[in-house]
């Protein structure tokens, strides 16, 4: 019903390149309709598969940058002396700020005896609302060298939830960033279910343990999906065993298939390119629905 909280499922992985974005698009094509949220704002690529039509663009302002007013700078060099980030550059007897190096700490603003340093809001990127064939999508692009990706992720998720409420769409599918850092924490906090995409390598097993540990910390049920499991069947078995020990059921295995690459090149979900793969991924989605139901998570 309208204004009810939608179910949020976050697709994450311990590292990039495991196939989580491809699976997010594939799951979206199987749901019929959902709200998509690309929270990998540092390197967003879900748009390459779902071909969104951008309808709104918004600026993302966060933090501040120092700017030296040349007409007031007396060249004393106090700002350069105390800048820990080497962001203050001498030029023609005066100083200027390298915007990419400035961390926005504001120390130079406080120390300048001539009050020659302004502290202005920083434009860190943009976030967009788009339409796709699977439903609305919220995505973003963080600026070059910009910080506060975790805050931008929070903006994307908030907008996705609001759209889902307004349009009475019961499900938000989130393509999360890799790793366990601030952007990932912002992606999973308050979510209803996490699906961890793992590849069968030793580092993949280690990454999975960290991500499942993060989900447990926030008391979010976690499920595991093995991608390219057949490139190392022994390791795949070990990962499945470890996942069960950690209380994260394995919802399915996906074999190596070059259709994933073709899907990115052609800009469409992988389930539309390979019938056998479509059957496997649909079965995995059904397992996610079943496992979610066991945890009281439903979007039907």
Strand order of the largest sheet: 3-6-7-2-8-1-9-10-11
The radius of gyration computed from the alpha-carbon positions, rounded to a whole number of angstroms, is: 23 Å
User: At the first level of CATH, what is the class of the largest domain?
Assistant: Alpha Beta
Could you tell me how far the N terminus lies from the C terminus, measured between alpha carbons in angstroms?
Answer: 11 Å
Percent of residues in helices: 25-40%
Helix/strand/pairing class, anyone?
alpha/beta
Instruction: Flag low-confidence runs.
Output: none
CATH fold-level assignment of the largest domain: Rossmann fold
Shape: elongated
CATH architecture annotation of the largest domain: 3-Layer(aba) Sandwich
Number of helices in the DSSP assignment: 10
How many beta-strand segments?
Answer: 11
Instruction: Tally the structural domains.
Output: 2
- What is the CATH superfamily of the largest domain? P-loop containing nucleotide triphosphate hydrolases
> What percent of residues are in strands?
25-35%
- The oligomeric state is single chain
Mind describing the biggest β-sheet? 9 strands, mixed
């Amino acid at each position: 019903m309208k204004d009810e909280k939608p179910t949020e499922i976050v697709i994450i992985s311990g590292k990039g390149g495991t196939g989580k974005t491809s699976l997010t698009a594939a799951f979206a094509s199987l749901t019929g309709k959902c709200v998509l949220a690309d929270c990998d704002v540092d390197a967003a690529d879900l748009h390459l598969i779902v071909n969104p039509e951008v309808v709104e663009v918004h600026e993302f302002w966060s933090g501040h940058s120092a700017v030296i007013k040349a007409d007031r700078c007396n060249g004393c060099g106090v700002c350069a002396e105390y800048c820990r980030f080497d962001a203050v550059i001498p030029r023609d007897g005066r100083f200027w700020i390298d915007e990419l190096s400035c961390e926005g700490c504001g120390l130079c603003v406080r120390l300048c005896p001539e009050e020659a340093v302004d502290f202005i809001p920083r434009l860190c990127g943009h976030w967009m609302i788009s339409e796709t064939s699977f439903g609305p999508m919220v995505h973003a692009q963080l600026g070059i060298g910009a910080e506060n990706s975790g805050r931008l992720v929070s903006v994307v998720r908030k907008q996705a939830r609001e759209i889902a409420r307004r349009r009475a769409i019961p499900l938000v599918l989130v393509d999360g960033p890799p790793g366990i850092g601030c952007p990932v924490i912002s992606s999973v906090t308050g979510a209803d279910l996490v699906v961890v995409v793992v590849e069968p390598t030793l580092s993949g097993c280690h990454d999975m343990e960290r991500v499942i540990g993060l989900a447990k910390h926030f008391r979010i049920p976690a499920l595991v999906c093995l991608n390219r499991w057949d490139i190392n069947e022994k390791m795949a078995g070990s990962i499945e065993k470890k996942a069960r020990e950690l209380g994260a059921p394995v919802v399915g295995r996906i074999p190596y298939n070059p259709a994933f690459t073709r899907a990115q090149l052609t800009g469409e979900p992988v389930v539309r390119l390979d019938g056998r793969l479509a059957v496997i991924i649909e079965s995995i989605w059904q397992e996610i629905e079943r496992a979610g139901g066991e945890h009281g998570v439903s979007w039907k």
